[in-house]
Design a protein that fits this description.
The complex is a heterotetramer of chains A (350), B (109), C (179) and D (689). Chain A has 350 residues and is mainly alpha-helical. Helix content of chain A is 67%, strand content 0%. The chains are: A mainly alpha (350), B mainly alpha (109), C mainly alpha (179), D mainly alpha (689).
C-alpha cells in the first residue's frame, strides 16, 4: 500500500523531470539552430555568405561556438559582487525556461495547463528583469550598470503594452487558459484571431502592438538599447564570459522563441492547421503530431520574421523607445481594451 | 489536480508560517537602520497577514473568495505604499545623502 | 506513507520545502547586511509565499503575487537601492537597536502567536485538515471584485491614481527654484 | 423617442471631450462643435416636449428607465433617467438658453485667448445640467449637481488673471458647498429611511414615503424642536436649494459671480443653474407634501418671500448693471421658492421657465451694452437707445416681462399665478410678493432709464451696436419673453394641466386638497393689485429718471422728507447717506464726547491711578510668589521632559520595539486571565492530528 504510493509518487516525479529535461533539450537545440539560422539570414540580407566551413554547409558552426564558450575561463571581475554576479544569469535563465510550462506545443502537448496561463506567462517573464539589473550592478562596471538601468526602464515600460495586447484575445475568448484560446480558433485560417475580421476588427491592432512591445520585451534589434554595442560595449553582460554568458545568450534566444509561441498561440491559431483538410479531421495522437508540426511551423515563420526585423531596422534611441511605449502604445492599448470590453459586453454574439 | 493540492496540511501550519514571517518582519523593523530595509520588513509583515487571510478564506467549509480578494487589496496597497515610500526615500537621499531612519529629523527641506 | 509512525503526504513534504525556503529567505531579508541582497532575498521569499498560495488553492493569487510583488515591487526596491547607492554599505551590525533585545521581543511575540495557533479551537465552518475543495478560479475573483467589493475596488483605483501622481511629484527632481 | 432621452446630456459631453482633445483645431475653434451638440440636444428636447405637451404624452405620466450601477453589498444602486413634464420643461429651458448663450458667445468672447476652453466649459456645464434634470436617482442628481457647481466655479473664475474673479469663484464654490452639505445629509437620511436612491417606480423613495406614513412622520428631535422625519429630510434638501438658488442667507455669492463672462451669467447665474435649487425642491415635492405639519414648506415659503423682498430692495441701490440684474435674479428665485412654499407648484415651475427666458435675455442684453460701451457702470451710460436700437427694444420687452405687465408678456402670467396662489394661502407672503413686484419694476425701469434714455453722460464712450451673431439670440429670447407665457394663461392653463400629474396621483391629491379654495380661471383682485403694483413702480421710476417733471426741489417744503429722497438722482445712496451714514456719524460724535469725557477722563484716568497703586502691590506678589510658581512649573516640565526624552526619540525602530513590548504585555495579561484554558506547552503532535 505504502509502496504503491511511493511508486506513484516516484512516477509522478519522474514524469516531471522527464518533461523538464525534454523541454530543456528542445530549448538548447532550438537555440543552437536559431543562432545558426540567424547568421545565415543576416548574411543573406547583407549579401554575404555566412558560416559555411564548419561541417556540411556550416551547420556545425554554432555547435563549435558553444563548445568554445564552455571551455572559456570563467572571469569574475575584481570588485564585483561575486555572489550576485554568479546567480544573475540563473535569475535570467530560469524564468525564460519556466515559461515553457504552459505553452501548448500541440493538442495535448502542454507540460501543465493552467487556468491562469496568460497571467502566468507575463508574471514569470517579468522576473527576468531582476536578473538583468542584478547582473549589471554586480559587474561593477559603468557600461553594465547603464545597460541594466536601460533594461529596467525598458522592460517596465513595455510590460504594460504587452499585457494590454495579450488581454484582447483573452477577452474575446473569455479564458486565460492558453489551450482554450487555441481550441477556440479551430476550423481554418479565417477563425484565427488575427484574421477573424468579421468578428472584431481591433484584433489586428492588438497583434501589431504585441509584436512591437514583445520585440522590446525580449530586447532584440530595433529595441536592443540595453546592450547597444556601439554605445555600451555590450550592456549588462559586458563582464560575463564562459558558461554564465552562455546562459544569458540562451535565455535571450529562448525568449525570441517564446515571443513567437505567444504570438502564434494568441493570434495565429496556435497548433490549429490553417485548413481543416490539413489535419483538422484527425484525432488523438495523430492530431497531436500534426498539430505539433503546425505549431512549430508557424513559430518558425515568426522567428524568421523577428530575424528579418532585427537585421533590417536601425536601433532606436532611448527617448524614442520610451516615448513609443508611454505615449503611443499604452494609450492605444487602453483605448483598444475599452472598445473590446464594450464589444464583448454589449455586442459580441454569445 | 489543483483541488486536492493541500491534502493533509492542517490550517495551523499556514498560520504558523504566517506568524514566523510576521515576527521576522517585526525583528527587521527593529534592527534595520536604513529606510529601505524597514520597507522590506513591512513587506514581510504584509505577506504574513496575507497568508492568514488566504488560509482562512480557503479553509472554510464553504470556501470564501473574500480572503483572496482582501489579499489582492493588500497587494495593491503594498504596491502603492512601496511606490510612495521609495519616492520619499529617493527624495531624502537626494537631499541628505543618507536614508537612515533614525537620522531623519527634518520634515521640510 | 508513514515515517516514524507519522502519516505524511507528498503535499506536506512540498509544504515543508516551500515554507522552509520562505522562512529562510525572510530571515535573509532582515539579517543580510547588503541591502541589495536583502532585496533579492525578499524576492525569493515572495516567490515562496506565492507557492504557499498555490498550495492553498489560490493559483490566481499566486500568479498575481509573482507579477506584482516580484515583478514590480522588488524591481522598484532594487532600483531605489541603486538610486541611493551609498546605503548598501550599512550593515546589520550597525543596527540602531540592540539586536538581542529586538530578537527577544520578536521571539516572545512569536511564542504567543504559536501558542494561540496551536490551542485554537476553530469555529464551526472551518475545515481544519485540508482546504475545502471548491475550485476558486479567476472568474469568481473577478465577480467578487466587481460585485460585493466594488466599492473598495474603486477606492483602491483612486488610491493608485493618487499614488501615481504623488510618487511622481515627490520623486521629481526640483528643477531650479520655481518661485 | 423618449427612450433615447439619455442622449440629451451625452451629446454635450461628447462635444466637451472633442473640444478638450482637439481645441483650436476644430471648426470655429470648438465653438461650432459645442453649438452643434447643444442644438442636437435642443432638437431632441423639443421632440420630447412635443410628445409630452402636444401629443398627450403627459397621460403617460412618467417614463422611467434604470440600469444597474453599483451593487454595494446587499443594496443595488441603479442609474437611470426619467422623463416627465417637469423634466421636459427643464430640458427645453436649459437647451434653449444654452444654445442661445453659446451662439451669443461667438460674438462676445471673440478674440479671447482661452476661447476653446470657454466652450468646453459651457458644454460640460450644459451636460451636467441636463443630467441633473434627467436623473431619476438622487445620487446621480447629486453628482450632476456638484458637477454643475464645479463648472460654475470654473466659469466665474474664467478670467483668473483678475484677482476679483478668482475670489468670486472661490466664494461661489464655498458658499454653495455650505448648502450642499445639507443636501448630502438629506440624501443620506432619505437613503437610510427608504433604503433606496431611486425616486420613482414601485421601488422608489416616493412610493416608500407614500406607503409608510407612520415611519415618515415619526418625530425627530433637533435641538428644541421636534420635526417629522420627512420634514427634516425636506429641510436638509432645502439647504442645498438655498445654496444653489442663492436664497437668504446664502445669497452672497451670486452678485459676486458676475465677475464671470456675461453670457455665463446669463446661462448659469440667471437661467439654469440657480434654478436648479427650485428644480430640486420641485423634484422632491412629494417629500414636502407628505409632511402633514408642513414645517419644511413654511420655512421654504418664508425664506423665499424674505429673499424676494430683501434682494429687490438691494437692487435699487446698485449702479453696476450686472449687479442690478443679479439682485433681481435672487429676488425672482425667491419668488419661485416662495411659490413652492405656498403650494404654488405649477406656478413656480411656470415662473422658472418664463424667468429663464427673460432673465437670460436681460443678461445677454446687458452683455451687449457692456460689449458696446466697455463699462458696466450705469452712471457712465445713458442715451444708448439710439445707438443700440435692437438691444434697447429687446431689453425693454424683457424688462416689461420681468415687471409682470399682464396680457402682453410671459412674466405677467407667471407672476400673477404665483400671487393668486399666495393670496389664497398665505396673506403675509402675498403682500411681500406684491411689494416685491413694485420694487422690481421700480429698479428695472431705473436701470432702463439710466442706461438707454437721456443723454450720454460719459462722452469718451463711443457705443456701437453689437454684431448680428449677438443680436439674433437677443431677438429669439425676447420673442420667448413674450410668447412663452401663453401656455399658462388662467383662461386656458394647459401648463397646469400637464404639470400637475407629475407628482403622481396621491401627492397630487394632497396638493389639490391644499389648494381647493383657489378659484380656477381669471381672478380679478389679484390681477388688479399685481398690475397696479407693477405700474406704480414703473410710474415712480419714470417720474424720477425719465421725465424729471417733478421739480422735486421746489416741492421740498410741502412734501418734507419724501421730497428730499425723491429729488435725488442717486436715490438709495442718499437714503443710506441720510440715515445710516449720518446716523453713524452722529453716533460717532456722541460716542466721541462720551469717550473723551466720561471714559477717558473719569474712568480711564481714575482706573489708571488705581492701577498704579495696585500695581505696586502686585509687583511684590508677582516677584516673589508668582514667579516662584512659574519657575516651579518650568522646573517640573524640564524634569519630566528630560525623563520622557528617552521615550520620544524619533527613532522608528524604538517605537516598533515599544509597540511589540506593549503587545506582549497585553497578551501576557490576557493569557494570565485565561490561565486555566491554555496549556503552556504547544502540543506539537497536535499539528498532525
Amino acid at each position: 500500500m505504502e509502496l504503491d504510493l511511493l511508486i506513484k509518487l516516484g512516477l509522478e516525479l519522474g514524469k516531471i523531470v522527464v518533461i523538464a529535461i525534454v523541454v530543456l533539450i528542445f530549448m538548447m537545440v532550438a537555440v543552437l539552430y536559431m543562432v545558426l539560422k540567424l547568421r545565415w539570414v543576416i548574411a543573406r540580407i547583407q549579401s554575404r555568405l555566412g558560416p559555411n566551413r564548419t561541417g556540411p554547409w556550416g551547420v556545425l558552426q554554432t555547435a563549435a561556438d558553444a563548445l568554445k564558450l564552455f571551455q572559456k575561463e570563467d572571469i569574475i571581475p575584481c570588485g564585483a559582487d561575486k555572489w550576485l554576479f554568479t546567480i544573475a544569469p540563473a535569475i535570467v535563465f530560469i524564468p525564460a525556461y519556466l515559461v515553457y510550462v504552459v505553452v501548448p506545443f500541440g493538442s495535448g502537448l502542454t507540460a501543465q495547463s493552467l487556468n491562469v496561463g496568460i497571467i502566468y506567462l507575463s508574471a514569470i517573464s517579468s522576473i527576468s528583469v531582476i536578473g538583468i539589473i542584478v547582473a549589471g550592478w554586480a559587474s561593477n562596471n559603468k557600461w553594465s550598470l547603464l545597460g541594466a538601468f536601460r533594461g529596467a526602464s525598458q522592460l517596465i515600460a513595455y510590460e504594460v503594452p504587452t499585457i494590454l495586447a495579450m488581454i484582447i484575445p483573452v477577452l474575446i475568448t473569455g479564458s486565460l487558459d492558453l489551450n482554450e484560446i487555441v481550441s477556440s480558433q479551430g476550423g481554418g485560417i479565417w477563425h484565427w484571431n488575427l484574421f477573424h475580421l468579421s468578428g472584431w476588427p481591433m484584433l489586428p491592432l492588438a497583434f501589431l502592438m504585441l509584436i512591437i512591445a514583445g520585440l522590446a520585451e525580449i530586447n532584440v534589434a530595433p529595441f536592443d538599447i540595453m546592450e547597444a554595442e556601439s554605445e555600451l560595449v555590450a550592456g549588462f553582460n559586458t563582464e560575463y564570459s564562459g558558461m554564465k554568458f552562455a546562459l544569458f545568450f540562451l535565455a535571450e534566444f529562448a525568449e525570441s522563441f517564446t515571443l513567437s509561441a505567444i504570438v502564434v498561440t494568441l493570434f495565429l491559431g496556435g497548433y490549429q492547421p490553417p485548413l481543416h483538410i490539413l489535419g483538422g479531421q484527425l484525432t488523438g495522437l495523430a492530431f497531436s503530431a500534426v498539430s505539433l508540426f503546425w505549431f512549430m511551423f508557424k513559430c518558425w515563420l515568426m522567428v524568421l520574421f523577428i530575424m528579418w526585423v532585427r537585421s533590417t531596422l536601425p536601433r532606436v534611441r532611448v527617448d524614442q523607445l520610451m516615448n513609443l511605449s508611454w505615449k503611443a502604445l499604452i494609450p492605444a492599448g487602453l483605448v483598444n481594451l475599452l472598445l473590446t470590453g464594450a464589444y464583448v459586453v454589449f455586442w459580441m454574439p454569445k | 489536480m489543483s483541488h486536492s493540492l493541500a491534502y493533509g496540511i492542517p490550517i495551523s501550519w499556514f498560520l504558523t508560517v504566517g506568524a514566523m514571517l510576521f515576527c521576522i518582519g517585526l525583528f527587521g523593523m527593529m534592527v534595520r537602520r536604513s529606510a529601505i530595509g524597514m520597507l522590506l520588513s513591512i513587506e514581510l509583515m504584509l505577506n504574513a497577514a496575507n497568508i492568514n487571510l488566504v488560509a482562512f478564506g480557503s479553509y472554510l467549509k464553504l470556501p470564501s473568495i473574500a480572503g483572496q480578494v482582501f489579499a489582492i487589496f493588500v497587494i495593491t496597497l503594498a504596491a502603492a505604499e512601496a511606490a510612495v515610500g521609495l519616492a520619499i526615500v529617493i527624495n531624502i537621499y537626494r537631499n541628505e545623502q543618507h536614508i537612515d531612519a533614525d537620522k531623519i529629523s527634518v520634515m521640510k527641506m | 506513507m508513514h515515517i516514524f509512525g507519522l502519516f505524511i503526504t507528498g503535499y506536506q513534504v512540498a509544504f515543508v520545502a516551500v515554507a522552509g525556503l520562505t522562512v529562510l529567505a525572510a530571515v535573509g531579508v532582515v539579517l543580510v547586511p547588503n541591502i541589495l541582497r536583502a532585496a533579492l532575498c525578499l524576492g525569493v521569499m515572495l516567490m515562496g509565499v506565492a507557492g504557499l498560495y498555490a498550495l492553498m488553492n489560490a493559483p490566481f493569487l499566486a500568479v498575481v503575487q509573482v507579477m506584482i510583488y516580484v515583478g514590480a515591487i522588488t524591481t522598484m526596491i532594487i532600483l531605489a537601492v541603486f538610486l541611493s547607492n551609498r546605503v548598501m554599505k550599512i550593515g546589520f551590525f550597525q543596527a540602531v537597536y540592540n539586536p538581542l533585545l529586538a530578537a527577544a521581543a520578536a521571539g516572545v511575540m512569536f511564542l504567543f502567536l504559536l501558542v494561540t495557533v496551536a490551542n485554537s479551537v476553530w469555529v464551526q465552518g472551518i475545515v481544519e485538515k485540508t482546504p475545502a475543495t471548491k475550485d476558486v478560479g479567476v472568474q469568481s475573483v473577478a465577480t467578487a471584485l466587481l460585485q460585493p467589493y466594488v466599492f473598495p475596488f474603486e477606492l483602491a483605483s483612486v488610491v493608485l491614481l493618487a499614488v501615481l501622481i504623488g510618487a511622481v511629484v515627490i520623486a521629481k527632481e526640483d528643477t531650479a527654484d520655481e518661485s | 423617442m423618449v427612450q433615447y432621452a439619455w442622449l440629451i446630456p451625452l451629446v454635450p459631453v461628447a462635444a466637451f471631450v472633442l473640444i478638450v482633445a482637439f481645441g483650436r483645431r476644430l471648426p470655429g475653434q470648438g465653438a461650432y462643435v459645442a453649438i452643434a451638440g447643444m442644438l442636437a440636444s435642443l432638437v431632441m428636447s423639443i421632440g420630447i416636449a412635443l410628445q409630452w405637451f402636444v401629443f398627450g404624452g403627459s397621460n403617460v405620466g412618467l417614463y422611467n428607465h434604470s440600469v444597474s450601477w453599483m451593487p454595494v453589498g446587499n443594496t443595488n444602486i441603479n442609474m437611470g433617467f426619467s422623463v416627465d413634464s417637469l423634466t421636459a420643461v427643464m430640458l427645453i429651458v436649459v437647451t434653449v438658453v444654452a444654445s442661445m448663450v453659446m451662439i451669443y458667445s461667438i460674438g462676445y468672447m471673440h478674440g479671447d485667448k482661452r476661447y476653446p476652453r470657454y466652450f468646453s466649459y459651457l458644454s460640460l456645464f450644459s451636460a451636467a445640467m441636463l443630467a441633473l434634470v434627467i436623473a431619476n436617482n438622487i445620487l446621480l442628481m447629486f453628482m450632476a449637481w456638484e458637477l454643475v457647481g464645479l463648472t460654475s466655479y470654473l466659469l466665474i473664475g474664467f478670467w483668473f488673471e483678475k484677482p476679483s474673479a478668482m475670489r468670486a469663484a472661490k466664494k461661489a464654490f464655498l458658499v454653495t458647498r455650505v448648502g450642499d452639505v445639507g443636501f448630502m445629509a438629506g440624501m443620506m437620511l432619505l437613503f437610510i429611511t427608504t433604503g433606496t436612491m431611486n425616486l420613482f417606480g414601485s421601488e422608489g423613495a416616493f412610493e416608500h414615503i407614500a406607503t409608510h406614513p407612520s415611519q415618515m412622520n415619526a418625530l425627530v428631535h433637533v435641538g428644541p424642536w421636534a420635526i417629522p422625519l420627512v420634514g427634516l429630510i425636506g429641510l436638509l434638501l432645502f439647504c442645498g436649494a438655498v445654496g444653489k438658488s442663492a436664497q437668504f442667507p446664502l445669497h452672497v455669492w451670486l452678485p459676486d459671480a458676475m465677475e464671470g463672462p456675461t453670457p455665463v451669467s446669463a446661462l448659469i447665474h440667471a437661467a439654469t443653474m440657480v434654478a436648479a435649487g427650485v428644480y430640486l425642491v420641485a423634484r422632491m415635492y412629494p417629500v414636502y407634501l407628505s409632511d402633514p405639519s408642513h414645517i419644511a414648506l413654511t420655512v421654504v415659503a418664508y425664506v423665499g418671500a424674505f429673499t424676494a423682498l430683501f434682494a429687490a430692495s438691494i437692487g435699487i441701490a446698485q449702479n453696476d448693471i450686472k449687479k442690478v440684474l443679479a439682485y433681481s435674479t435672487v429676488s425672482q428665485l425667491g419668488y419661485m421658492i416662495m411659490s413652492l412654499g405656498v403650494f404654488g407648484y405649477v406656478a413656480a415651475i411656470f415662473h422658472l421657465m418664463t424667468h429663464a427666458f427673460f432673465k437670460a435675455q436681460l443678461f445677454l442684453g446687458s452683455g451687449s451694452v457692456i460689449h458696446g460701451t466697455g463699462t458696466q457702470d450705469m452712471r457712465e451710460m445713458g442715451g444708448l437707445k439710439k445707438k443700440m436700437p435692437v438691444t434697447y427694444w429687446t431689453f425693454l420687452i424683457s424688462t416689461l416681462s420681468l415687471c409682470g405687465i399682464p396680457f402682453v408678456t410671459a412674466g405677467g402670467w407667471s407672476k400673477e399665478e404665483i400671487l393668486t396662489v399666495a393670496y389664497h394661502t398665505n396673506p403675509v407672503v402675498f403682500w411681500a410678493g406684491v411689494l416685491g413686484a413694485f420694487t422690481t419694476s421700480f429698479y428695472m425701469f431705473r436701470l432702463v432709464y439710466m442706461t438707454f434714455h437721456g443723454e450720454p453722460r460719459d462722452h469718451k464712450i463711443h457705443a456701437h451696436e453689437s454684431p448680428k451673431v449677438m443680436l439674433v439670440p437677443l431677438i429669439i429670447l425676447a420673442f420667448l419673453a413674450i410668447f412663452a407665457g401663453y401656455v399658462g394663461t388662467p383662461f386656458h392653463n394647459s401648463f397646469e394641466h400637464n404639470m400637475a400629474p407629475v407628482l403622481g396621483e396621491q401627492f397630487e391629491g394632497i396638493l389639490e386638497h391644499n389648494l381647493d379654495m383657489i378659484p380656477h380661471g381669471f381672478f380679478m383682485p389679484v390681477f388688479l393689485i399685481g398690475t397696479f403694483a407693477a405700474l406704480l413702480g414703473i410710474f415712480f421710476a419714470t417720474l424720477i429718471w425719465k421725465w424729471h417733471v417733478i421739480k422735486i426741489e421746489k416741492l421740498e417744503p410741502a412734501f418734507g422728507w419724501l421730497a428730499k429722497i425723491v429729488e435725488n438722482k442717486y436715490y438709495i445712496d442718499e437714503i443710506y447717506q441720510a440715515t445710516i451714514i449720518r446716523g453713524l456719524m452722529l453716533a460717532a460724535a456722541l460716542l466721541y464726547w462720551f469717550d473723551k469725557w466720561v471714559i477717558d477722563y473719569v474712568i480711564v484716568n481714575g482706573v489708571g491711578y488705581m492701577s498704579l497703586v495696585l500695581a505696586r502691590a502686585w509687583w511684590w506678589i508677582d516677584r516673589n510668589i508668582v514667579d516662584g510658581l512659574v519657575n516651579l512649573a518650568g522646573w517640573i516640565t524640564g524634569t519630566l521632559g528630560r525623563g520622557l526624552r528617552y521615550v520620544q526619540t524619533g527613532v522608528t525602530q524604538q517605537y516598533v520595539f515599544l509597540l511589540v513590548v506593549a503587545m506582549v504585555i497585553i497578551s501576557l495579561v490576557f493569557v494570565a486571565g485565561n490561565y486555566s484554558e491554555v496549556s503552556w506547552i504547544p502540543p506539537i503532535t497536535g499539528f498532525f492530528h
